[in-house]
Specification:
Structural class: alpha/beta
Low-confidence stretches: 1-43, 116-182, 537-554
Radius of gyration: 36 Å
Distance between the termini: 142 Å
CATH topology of the largest domain: TIM Barrel
Largest sheet: 8 strands, mixed
CATH superfamily of the largest domain: Metal-dependent hydrolases
Shape: globular
Number of strands: 17
Number of helices: 18
Helix content: 25-40%
Mean pLDDT: 77
Length: 554
């Protein structure tokens, strides 16, 4: 018994030592390391404070703050108002005598700020050798944005899926991507295609920024025009589902009606099933998708996407409005030239219209009903509750085009809406907030409000006036365009140079000189006072000193 007790006692130090030794051996394998944490903290971006001061701020919400300031922190608006506290490291842009507006949002923009080849596609080996003509503009060279076929997305999705999923890991028997997975990968592929093709150094990007455009619609995606940066350029990949409605194509109308009817019935049944308890769900099967079910229509009915139509005639617009009222969704109608003739119906449907105020379409003389389009179209639509977004006839970033017909004169198109009766605040919203709402990013851009991105433009006058220049463009709290530093418009009405402030040494020297002058003046005044007391005229001191005194002559 004593021997057993001794052996146990002798083993205790060994049992304590082994875990400690193991802990020492395994310690270097820990995933957290003090050095790594220090490196990570060093790599973190320092706080960025930016402010625009002494400007008339047009927030886009109806407010106008005269001589106010706007402060942002790391690209997000922190505060707007008067007498703001500005941290020492704040970069200050003094916009004395100028105006500040939200950054403009261009719908249906075509440009070469995206390259015709995707680096992501090369990475996955989808286009290893041959060059493919990929349409990164989504066909938006057409004024109404019809999307072409064969843009390379399907091949890109299949290439990515073959690497990420692999054979037998969710692919069909034919080695294809399942429909549900394909839908998500299609959106991801489109996102990669635009993000990887973005050129932050494009000359056309500078053209857009000089117009005041801070966000552009590229193939239905909201792209933030960040100069010299590629991080965070994609705000949202897709917010619209393209649908077709034309009285000249009755079969397409029947097909769309069937999709809405079947998908609406499925959604109603699914919501009833989803409201059941877990126990009841085991007894009742989940509703099956009927014939005619369409995932895009389902997303529209759920409010996840907006239904996008391209229509201009009265009959088409009326049919779209009544379809929207029946199934309770909000359509976005591009074109909408005869919208003024059915403005009440479109307003009841909660429609959003993308129009070009200066487009002209004469009325068919064979028809008795109202028709055609005029400059008053946007104003009438707005008066009936339709949210109006304005798009130029030629929505391209380049040096070509007729004055006022391209994105270089984007605000001029909105100004023509004002000429037709559109209120000025609605005209400003038509190129800022409403396009942002159509793209699904109005929670981040479109107005100047606390919590939104610091995307703003500083102009030397009314943004809707044809003589106004954008002096500075700010994207995410960074100045990305300065008129004086670019070759485009620097020579036209250059800004007056600010007066250089005196250095501290100059100020100190001036103060010392003022003190010396003041001291000398006081001494002269004292001497004059003494001369006056002695009866001598001021300035006779020299004569008194030369002449001998009366006592010496005696």
């Amino acid at each position: 018994m004593k021997i057993l007790r001794r052996s146990i006692l002798s083993a205790i130090p060994f049992l304590v030592f082994v875990p400690l030794a193991a802990a020492r051996v395994l310690a270097p394998l820990s995933f957290t390391d003090d050095g790594d944490e220090k490196d990570e903290s060093a790599d973190e971006e320092e706080d960025r404070w930016f402010a625009i001061t002494n400007a008339d701020i047009y927030t886009g919400t109806g407010e106008v703050l005269r001589g106010a300031a706007i402060l942002s922190h790391n690209g997000v608006i922190e505060e707007i108002g008067y007498d703001l506290y500005l941290p020492e490291e704040t970069e200050i842009l003094d916009a004395m005598g100028m105006r500040v507006y939200p950054g403009l949002v261009a719908l249906g923009a075509t440009s070469t700020i995206t390259q015709p080849r995707s680096f992501e596609a090369e990475q996955w080996g989808v286009f290893p050798e041959e060059e493919m003509d990929l349409d990164l503009h989504g066909g938006l060279d057409d004024p109404h944005g019809e999307e072409p076929e064969g843009d390379g997305i399907e091949e890109l999705v299949q290439g990515i899926a073959s690497h990420l999923i692999g054979p037998g890991d969710g692919l069909t028997a034919d080695g294809e991507v399942p429909y549900g997975a394909y839908e998500g990968m299609e959106a991801a592929a489109a996102r990669h295609k635009l993000e990887d093709g973005f050129d932050p150094f494009s000359q056309n990007l500078i053209l857009a920024l000089s117009t005041g455009i801070t966000t552009a619609d590229q193939s239905g995606a909201a792209m933030k025009l960040r100069r010299g940066e590629i991080e965070g350029v994609m705000l949202k990949a897709k917010n619209q589902a393209s649908m077709s409605w034309s009285v000249s194509n009755p079969s397409a109308i029947r097909s769309l009606r069937k999709k809405f009817q079947a998908t609406s019935a499925y959604l109603r049944d699914y919501r009833e099933w989803d409201a059941l308890s877990d126990k009841e769900k085991k007894e009742v099967k989940e509703p099956r998708k009927p014939d005619g079910y369409d995932p895009s229509v389902l997303a529209v009915l759920r409010g996840e996407l907006l239904a996008r139509f391209t229509a201009s005639t009265r009959e088409d617009l009326l049919g779209i409005a009544r379809l929207a009222q029946t199934y309770h969704f909000r359509p976005v109608i591009w074109g909408c030239r005869e919208g003024w003739t059915v403005a009440e119906e479109l307003g009841r449907a909660g429609a959003l219209a993308v129009v070009t105020p200066r487009e002209r379409s004469p009325k068919d003389e064979k028809l008795v009903r109202p028709g055609g389009s005029s400059i008053e179209n946007a104003a009438i639509l707005h008066a009936h509750g339709v949210q109006v977004a304005i798009k130029p006839a030629n929505a391209s970033f380049n040096l070509g085009g007729i004055t006022g017909r391209d994105l270089l004169h984007f605000p001029v198109e909105a100004a023509f809406g004002v000429r037709g009766g559109l209120p000025e605040d609605a005209a400003l919203a038509s190129i800022t907030l409403i396009p942002a709402r159509i793209l699904g990013v109005d929670h981040r851009i479109g107005t100047l409000e606390v919590g939104k991105d610091m995307d703003a433009i500083v102009t030397d006058g009314d943004v809707l006036h044809y003589e106004t220049f954008v002096q500075w463009t700010v994207v995410s709290g960074k100045v990305v365009y300065d008129k004086q530093k670019e070759v485009l418009y620097a020579h036209i009405r250059p800004r007056p140079e600010p007066q250089k402030e005196e250095t501290e040494a100059q100020q100190d020297g001036a103060e010392d000189g003022a003190e010396a002058t003041e001291g000398a003046t006081s001494e002269d005044e004292q001497a004059e006072a003494e001369d006056a007391d002695s009866g001598d005229e001021p300035g006779d001191d020299s004569e008194d000193e030369d002449e001998p005194s009366g006592d010496s002559s005696m």
